[in-house]
Amino acid sequence: MHGMSYAFVHFVFVPLTDGGNDRQRACTCHFFTVSGSLIPRPTKVVGRADQIKLQAGSDFLVLPRLKKAPGVRTIAKKYDMGTSSKQVMDIKVTKGLASVGNEELRDWTEKGWNQAMREGNYDRSREHLNFEIRPGGMVAPIDKSRPLIRRMAENLASRGIKDPNEGLAEPRFRTVVNFIFGGSTERMRELAFGNQKVDFESKGGNEHIRRMPEIEQWAQDIYRFVADKYGEENIVSFIVHCDEKNPHVHSALLPIDKDKKFAFKKIFHGQNRIDYKNYLLALHDELAKVNEKWGLTRGVSIAETGARHRSTEEYRRWLANECVTLEAQMLNTRKALEDLNVELSIAQKKQKSFTSMIENLKAEINRLEAELKPLRALQANSDDISADIARKIQSLEQQKAMVEDKLADKEKKLSETNQLLDTLRKDKEEIEKQASELEDKANQSELSWAHNMSYHLNGVMLDTMAHEFAIRFPNLPDSVKLDFDGTLLCQLAEDGNHVVKVALNLVCGFVDDATTIAQTHGGGGGSPDSGWGKRPDEDDREWARRCLAMARKMCAPSVRRRKKM
User: Where does a domain end: 410, 431, 449?
Assistant: First the structure.
């Protein structure tokens, strides 16, 4: 047995025989999670339960002491979750809890729920699966009667701690650290729902789904991790959502130290962004130890691998796969640029430092060489020199050799730093280009949206104008009515729907259909000639204008009918 790992195991029970022949028939299936040591080269359990034999070299996992009824063999198939299921931890620092609360508690009105399901990934039929962890690690339904702002106020009041933002026109102090804990979608769904079939697309019809105990146990482990790390008294809320596409935890934490003072920078940030980054890296490592038993592993950090940022191609692929919305892509691009700028700043400082050290080392070598030169000359011109001079030469030579070794090391590091700087600058240029492309795409999307809105507004405006004109036209004096005779406005008011239908068919190239519609509804203006169609040099707007003009003509009643009217 080698190393600790965890696996998802699928059991299939198969009778050895079926009515005297060797045909195998599956009887039942079970899914569950096991923890423990896995064999690097798995084996298969074959034979009667009381005479189990192990067959090596297959894609199956050994489970010792397996007991089933005689005549049944058990096959346990391994699905290794260690390589694909990753943990997730996100941190957002805020100056209070005013911006969150309703969403986390799901304290919405009917209208709010409808809007949330329309715009987000919420499924109201799974809301009953949500829960929270209360002090002591107790699993309980979400208490919607206690808003998060109130919970925070009560927490501080019970401990005699004042909110530093209280009474300020605009909050200034970072008083809340909002954690999100989770993992790869597939694994989190297994923990929450087991092998139940959940409809994640329709956002409904999942009222029958039960919450699995594994998601509660995992949440309790995460709760204990946060409580042990930062103090249970500082946890304002710890809420688990199972009604979105990926089950996860929201936890609001007060960064209060042992002296009962808000101290976000002291606890989390350190003196600069580098300290903050290192703290978060270490925090991910600590969390990974908790998540290990749940088949969730830590992603390999840049610092651990010695690798730097993703290559540009990897970055683009990651954006395409992980960021569904344009807004998410733009946000992550900005974050990538921020990280690159930090790395550039660090590399530039290293470059400056190594350059300065190299200059100092070269100066030191020149000084030692200047001191050695007369002594070497004395040694070369004399057959007999004193022991003191010989020791002095030896000592200076040793010092020079040590300085030369240091110089070689610093020159190597400077060369590596220069290469890194070149790569960082190229990556920055590429990602800036990507950011520019996304910005253009966003602008185009806005223009497209505006165009669509303009289309709808024009349609509504046309309908409204035609409707209002049709109502008021009969009441106009005859002299005024004559002024509108033959105008588009008058025609649209009388027969607008058919004119638009005919025009639309003409635009789409359906001349026969357009003619049929026009004639069916009393049109006597004929039909387009055989050469009708869009001209090569004609833009869409002009083509639409011509189609509308032709539709008016086709829908106009014949002269005889017009006189009768």
Answer: 449
